[in-house]
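Anyone have tokens for Potassium channel subfamily K member 4? Sequence:
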Amino acid sequence: MRSTTLLALLALVLLYLVSGALVFQALEQPHEQQAQRELGEVREKFLRAHPCVSDQELGHFIKEVADALGGGADPETNSTSNSSHSVWNLGSAFFFSGTIITTIGYGNAALRTDAGRLFCIFYALVGIPLFGILLAGVGDRLGSSLRRGIGHIEAIFLKWHVPPELVRVLSAVLFLLIGCLLFVLTPTFVFCYVEGWSKLEAIYFVIVTLTTVGFGDYVAGADPKQDTPAYQPLVWFWILLGLAYFASVLTTIGNWLRVVSRRTRAEMGGLTAQAASWTGTVTARVTQRGPTAPPPEKERPLLPPPPAPTQPVVRPLSPEPTEKVDPPSPPTASALDYPSENLAFIDESSDTQSERGCALARTPRGRRRPNPPRKPARPGPASKRLSSLTL
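Reply: yep, here.
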């Protein structure tokens, strides 16, 4: 990832955090102040009703009660021998171990001994990777099962001649709806019935759990009245399947984003190749033109416009007129100092042609006589006439 993209993403996350902080502060701070005022009023009322109790003693008693509640004590009972309402019975301990390796960590039950805290460190270091491997395998198998079932529905849509693009959209929507129905809506109604929560509280617990946030204000099976030993282990198995479903959804979204990124890179690469090819073509043309290429329009010197082209005159074909030959004028001595050099080729060509004609006449058909060797030039009749004129 580029530095500019990383900085932009960091700025976006910080802006998102600040906006969330402002919203939560505006929504929750008035409720906190109201609860603090009510606690003060109850405390003053207790001190007026019991003047023998001092303010310091009451404060110390409240602190001890809070610590006991954090350790899992039940304020409604004085019995310490009944293990069915204990936080550390087998079912509750199994659920606590499950919240460690799933990294949910509700916080309603915490370790109070040093030995327990030391063991939790090594238990988490081993259990979290192990659960991650299990989660990947379950998510793959669960996603494959859901996609296989949705594939039959896609085949039905294709038989009805539904466009493939619309079928893909419908299959994605069905994948999300089936998962939400199995792992979000159904547990919501179950928790409403078993825990006695409202629908908002139940769906709040479901989303906080499956996103591994785990505030701990609502925990399934934390009510001491819930004494079914197998309840919390069943809740943990629901957490396993729900996290696997969300993992498969995130994997699908990641694959889709990867495909989109590859297509975008391929398109950008094609555009870059086209631009490079165009640039290379233009450069080659400019190089081929060289320095004789005409200057640009702005740098061309101002020249008078060329004359307008005239239409050629089409004349009818007629026999060429004979040129008028003037009578030869007496030549000068300077032009004919060496007549044999100037006109020797005429004599040579005429004698050669006459000799070739005689040879061809004497050669029988089908047989060609070789050319005779070339003879030195000799003055012909024309040179003799020219010499007599000169004399």
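DSSP finds nine helices and no strands in the chain.
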